[in-house]
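Supplementary material to the annual report.
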Amino acid sequence: MSDSVTTPSESSRLTVALIGNPNTGKSTLFNALCGGQARVGNFPGVTVEKKVGQYQFKERDITLIDLPGTYSLSPRSADEMVSVDVLLGRQDDIPKPQAVVCIVDSSNLERNLYVFSQIRDLNLPTVLVLNMWDLAKNRGITIDVDELRQRLGVTVVMTSAHRQDGIEAVSEAIIQVVEDEVTPPPRLFPEAFYAEVEKLSAWLVEHGEEPAHFYLHERMLLDVRGASEEATNKENTLQLKEYLGETRLRLAAEGCRIPAIETKLRYNWIREKLDGVMVRPASDQTLSTSDRIDKIVTHRFSGILVFALLMFLVFQAIYTWSGPFMNLVEGGQNFISTTVEGWMPPGTLRSLLVDGLIAGVGSVIIFLPQIVMLFAFIAIMEDCGYMARAAFLMDKLMTKIGLSGKSFLPLMSSFACAIPGVMATRVIENRRDRMVTMLVAPLMSCSARLPVYILMIYTFIPASFIFGWLPLQGTVLFAMYALGTLIAIPIAWILKKTFFKGETPPFVMELPPYKWPSPRIVFDRVYDRAKAFVVRAGTLIFSVTVLVWALSYFPSDHSELHNLSIQMETIEVTAPAEQETLDQLSDQHNLLAGKLIRESYLGRMGVAIEPVVKPLGWDWRIGIGALASFPAREVVIATLGTIFSLGGDTDEENPGLRSTLAAATWPDGRPLFTVPVALSIMVFFALCAQCGATLMVIRRETNSWRWPIFTFTYMTVLAYVAAFLTYQIGTAIGG
Amino acid sequence: MTDEAHSMKTLADLKQVGDQVRIVEVHGDDGVAIRLMEMGLTEDEEIELVGFAPLGDPIEFSVRGYRISLRETEAARVEVSD
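Predicted assembly:
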């Protein structure tokens, strides 16, 4: 800031990074500072979310960068390297921060200060925020803040972000520290270590590397097989690995054993700084209450009971309670469609508006009730501390299938809908576990598959009993739900052995003391998730819906169909008594609509793929139905209705649709739908990735097209093979 | 893990809730070992067994004034003495 020629607007601009342990209220502080205004994206090439907020304070424009919650600044992966890169100004799309705000949980200072001690090594102006000050005070923990400030050599601010307490003081501190001189970082390591780091720096420059920050070279020595080594030394052309190995041996000989030395020295330093500054009460009421709750909540029997009850609630919420809200969305969509239909005569434009645009918006908003419900539950369970216990309870079970305890909730939610399920994988910090969970989540039988199962089962599976007591229809329904779940196990196993292999990630997890959830935190999280879905996945879902509309509309000539619609609409208004004429017109209309969809691009594709779907026992009509439902499987019922000339306004309970399907034949008169065909359709729908919205959410969550394409491919192949086997084996047995 | 891992006493050997031990060393230099150390499981630190998950794994401990859950395999990396 010594440059005297900088313009006023430049000098008033400040870039500040926000970092801290998970569960310290970092997002809450971020929202409180920026007033909820943030641009959310991804850092290029990694799955780390980039959240940047802007606000003004005392005529300074402050840009706040929210870094992912972390226990340390010792990057072991490209994802973790992002935070170091941002802090050192090595991230291209972000200016180098002029200050860093480190937020800690005041009631858990000792462990929280670990990452702070690493941040000090960056030699940046630093503000230490003691958050959850109110909670620490209630627990009887006392901290001598003035003394702490003296000892640590940084500005210290107390906040209770969830109550908006102390927020302004943070901004004050930020604009103050950039003016102050930075206290040099403490030299915790033996001099021999620093000498080796300097030697390494010189050695790297000698070998043609750009000079880099001291901290990066510290990390190279301290992190065995760490990310800073990886980043400089992709091919090991420098023989850096050997160099580091030798250096570490030399240091070990001098009693400086890597990696244990770092944690030991830093924790010793922390303890020394906190000695006499922080005093815990002899008996911590919160901890003992929390332990008492844990006695019940993690108990062998009552724990499982509480867990099952809560999961049942969550499932009910997304499966059942969201129903009325989804109906409301549907009702709203219908109302708008009808209104538009009242204003405009039938035609291409009206069809685009109603079946393309309005249906497209509807197909995005329809998921909001489920997303809001699930994330409200997750936010409450996270904030009160139960989430960690749920993972604690389920971990052993989930490790048996290669996942971790944190995978349970996202997978279970996917039985209602994979979209909130995939979004919920964010609770899994480990990238590999998170990816595998995300990629198998769409195999769980979601609520949109149920109509297909119901239509097929109640039309084609006899209502008989196995062994005289087990209802066959219910058993088939259960089998369909079990199918996806069971197949997910080997798929997860294969993914772990192929794309996501490596050392088993640590499942070292903090179990925070229970507390009452803060309404503000819950609201913020739900709002964040809902907004992210609508803004970032919604646009893609919308586009897909419009595209499918176009494929099923063009290039057929719809003028006759529009004429029929006009006639029907006229009669409805002028002579509603002429039911017979109306019925006739309606039949003509449905017949023509069926013909038009056959002639559309989509229909032609369906006809073209008949040879492909024939081994599954399907004709081209079922083929079109399956094709049309790739963007959203629930449309298959309406599409089948249209193709079989019953009109699109049908559902799985419709007796007309059922009898038409039962009567449908091949050209040679054989019945089209047999039990093996019905089963093959159901198996196909159970396993196929027929949900554009899920794929778009996977794209958003992984920040790459690779994974949605992968998911689509493996699920479609799986569905095809399984449907093929079902039909062929079923036919061979049944004759 | 090496063979000596079987002869030494580790956190995974604790059976009685309330047992207090002192950490001798976290074995290994991989991600798991480093995470354990970063979470405060360092030499000479006291650690107490708080409880087990219903299937006996993971295990809950108290260290540095907070509660932490470790899998049995992770707990077995932490050598302790009474």
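DSSP finds 33 helices and twelve strands in chain A.
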